[in-house]
């Protein structure tokens, strides 16, 4: 049981995950402080009358109680900032790298397939009795020796 756990830890993925969690937590704290100290005070001033602390986004419900929509708006801005950073600095680069790898693999597979087709055509034309006519197909210089030289 401990051997399996040790192998799980030594794979390396768990270390990457731990680093990502720590960085994500630190970044979340940074964005939260930013919204709490800069964005929220700006939002709180929306629609506030001169002698009042209650604005458009704070709804007084009587008895000194208010519904504070500023907190909800600040949390939404916090979420949008974090989601944008994660998307633009993690998801988008990862997707781009993954697509680039898939294109390279597809290109390699196409080259192999086209090479096989070319070789079959060379064999077929080279061993034909001339029934079909046409010129012999020669491979391009960068992929092998030319048949016509």
UniProtKB/TrEMBL annotation:
<dbReference type="InterPro" id="IPR019823">
    <property type="entry name" value="Mechanosensitive_channel_CS"/>
</dbReference>
<keyword id="KW-0812">Transmembrane</keyword>
<dbReference type="InterPro" id="IPR036019">
    <property type="entry name" value="MscL_channel"/>
</dbReference>
<comment type="function">
    <text>Channel that opens in response to stretch forces in the membrane lipid bilayer. May participate in the regulation of osmotic pressure changes within the cell.</text>
</comment>
<comment type="similarity">
    <text>Belongs to the MscL family.</text>
</comment>
<keyword id="KW-0813">Transport</keyword>
<dbReference type="GO" id="GO:0005886">
    <property type="term" value="C:plasma membrane"/>
</dbReference>
<keyword id="KW-0472">Membrane</keyword>
<dbReference type="InterPro" id="IPR001185">
    <property type="entry name" value="MS_channel"/>
</dbReference>
<keyword id="KW-0407">Ion channel</keyword>
<keyword id="KW-1003">Cell membrane</keyword>
<protein>
    <recommendedName>
        <fullName>Large-conductance mechanosensitive channel</fullName>
    </recommendedName>
</protein>
<feature type="transmembrane region" description="Helical">
    <location>
        <begin position="12"/>
        <end position="32"/>
    </location>
</feature>
<keyword id="KW-0406">Ion transport</keyword>
<comment type="subunit">
    <text>Homopentamer.</text>
</comment>
<dbReference type="GO" id="GO:0008381">
    <property type="term" value="F:mechanosensitive monoatomic ion channel activity"/>
</dbReference>
<feature type="transmembrane region" description="Helical">
    <location>
        <begin position="71"/>
        <end position="92"/>
    </location>
</feature>
<feature type="region of interest" description="Disordered">
    <location>
        <begin position="125"/>
        <end position="149"/>
    </location>
</feature>
<dbReference type="Pfam" id="PF01741">
    <property type="entry name" value="MscL"/>
</dbReference>
<keyword id="KW-1133">Transmembrane helix</keyword>
<dbReference type="InterPro" id="IPR037673">
    <property type="entry name" value="MSC/AndL"/>
</dbReference>
